[in-house]
Design goal:
This protein is α/β, with parallel strands linked by helices. The protein has 14 helices and 12 strands. Bound molecules: nicotinamide-adenine-dinucleotide (NAD).
């Protein structure tokens, strides 16, 4: 892999490789962009088949975090860490404490968190070595399980879509098809039905479906039929790539708005959705509730403030629709544009306040020869 070329192509600032023989730690931290603030992004533990696979993943994921933070109005940049290993077999206290030391050595440029293959317990070990970690247990001032916040944010995004499409954000009487009744999907179903929605759902885990049916009055549908349900809103809360060439022609909905990551199989799928007259809430903007919630930990966690911050997802989705209309582009493109515009404009604000800039204006450029 031509690493510098790849970094330059995608705008990465820094990639750090950490090795600690005693604990078997092989980790990579990618810092994509810090113009808005320190890079925040989870730590993924995965038995990557090759180092190239690990590098490709960390570069892709860290860049995604820059866009997610920027579009969500956070003063954070994008970063991510990958730990090469099997989360079932290779974990130890020393491994995560070693990682914590390394994260601490980055001087605050990168803040880590839970991700695929890591847990709150792993974050606790990291927390013993550095405070540059969020998503720790509430007893340490952490915010706990992010799923209810992601679900709350998703419902705010759904309301913005309903308002755009029907001129009212009222959920009652609207029919939804929720794919996946897990941590986020289950909470979304709970909130939607509480506001009087009719919800169809499916999940490969039958207990999850049973819970949604028994506790929230959802109606079960077979796994593959979720795409054919006659619902106004399709809510993907399970897998990625669910909007693809096979499913596009089956969707009867007016809106796609859910928490799943990477919902579009390709950019073309996003454009195709639009051409079919289906309004799409870009995934990384509507599912940012978990990120917004953990970001509050950096200011001293407060649950009420977190919910208030997450409710801004309604406005973020609205803003994306405005940009799509302004520039005559798809909503997935508008989300990227909103993120890029915000990074560009906000990063210039600091310039007049920097001492160096002021010194230059007044002709008092610091002279190194004084030392
Ligand atoms: P989860 O594992 O708790 O729930 C996912 C559910 O989907 C599970 O119950 C699983 O059985 C089900 N599922 C898997 N394959 C399926 C299929 N083919 N058809 C129907 N159901 C299927 O995960 P989660 O935390 O609820 O996350 C859901 C989605 O939201 C994921 O794509 C995740 O990346 C994304 N997301 C989650 C958060 C968060 O805070 N948890 C934040 C941002 C994005």
């Amino acid at each position: 892999m031509k690493l510098f070329e790849t970094m330059a192509d995608h705008g990465h600032e820094q990639v750090v490789f950490f090795n600690h023989v005693e604990t078997g730690l092989n980790a990579i931290v990618a810092i994509h962009n810090t113009l808005l603030g320190p890079a925040l992004g989870g730590l993924r533990m995965w038995p990557y088949a090759s180092e190239d696979d690990a590098i490709t993943d960390v570069l892709r994921l860290s860049r995604g975090m820059t866009y997610k933070a920027a579009v969500s109005g956070l003063n954070l940049g994008g970063g991510k860490a990958v730990l090469i290993g099997d989360p079932e077999e290779d974990k130890s206290e020393a491994l995560f404490r070693a990682l914590g030391r390394f994260v601490g050595s980055l001087g605050g440029r990168y803040i880590t968190a839970e991700d695929v293959g890591t847990t709150v317990e792993d974050m606790e070990y990291i927390f013993q070595e550095t405070d540059r970690v969020v998503g720790v247990h509430p007893v340490h001032g952490g915010s706990g399980d992010p799923s209810p916040f992601t679900a709350f944010g998703t419902v705010q995004g759904i309301k913005a879509c309903l308002n755009k499409r029907y001129g009212s954000s009222d959920i009652s009487g609207i029919t939804f098809a929720v794919q996946g009744a897990g941590s986020v999907g289950g909470n979304v179903i709970k909130m939607l039905t509480k506001e009087g929605a009719k919800v169809f759902t499916c999940d490969i885990n039958e207990d999850r479906v049973a819970q949604a049916v028994d506790e929230h009055g959802a109606e079960p549908v077979p796994l593959d039929e979720i795409f054919d349900v006659d619902a106004k809103v399709f809510v993907p809360c399970a897998l990625g790539s669910v909007i693809n060439t096979n499913t596009l022609s089956r969707l009867k909905c007016d809106i796609v708005a859910g928490s799943a990551n990477n919902q579009l199989e390709s950019e073309q799928s996003g454009t195709d959705l639009e051409e079919r007259g289906i309004l799409y809430a870009p995934d990384y903007a509507i599912n940012a509730g978990g990120l917004i919630n953990v970001a509050i930990e950096l200011q001293g966690y407060n649950r009420e403030r977190a919910y208030r911050a997450v409710s801004a997802i309604y406005n973020n989705i609205e803003r994306i629709f405005q940009i799509a209309a302004r520039d005559q582009i798809s909503t997935w493109q508008a989300a990227d544009r909103l993120a890029e515009e915000r990074i560009r404009t906000i990063s210039t604000l600091r310039m007049p306040y920097s001492k160096q800039f002021k010194d230059r204006l007044s002709g008092r450029t610091p002279k190194l020869s004084h030392h």
